[in-house]
Amino acid sequence: MTLEIERKFLVANDRWKNSIVRSIRIRDGLIASDNGNKARVRIADGIATIALKSRRRGSVRTEFEYVIPISDAEEMLRTMCEGNVLDKVRHVVSHASDTWEVDVYEGLLDGIVLAET
Length: 117
Hints:
Hypothetical Protein Pfu-838710-001, single chain, 9 strands, mainly beta, 1 helix
């Protein structure tokens, strides 16, 4: 179990692109959501995971994440996510002494760019 603290920011320009360290293509699917608790399946960088997240308490929530076979994740994305599948490229960006993750969405959220640290 880990504690997740999310602080997301809408990105206003492209200056961050000069500081990209690496990029990862991600497919993310929401399997279930109930009262702020969520179950999500993801394929990223050749690794598939399933995650269970508690509802937020302020900016913090607990997260349990487990590696699963890619074939299972693909089947879950296809049959259990009911169109709630997001495609994005996550860019790891180094700025000052911080590492940021900048998500550039495609498909359903095409054009949205969010950053978090």
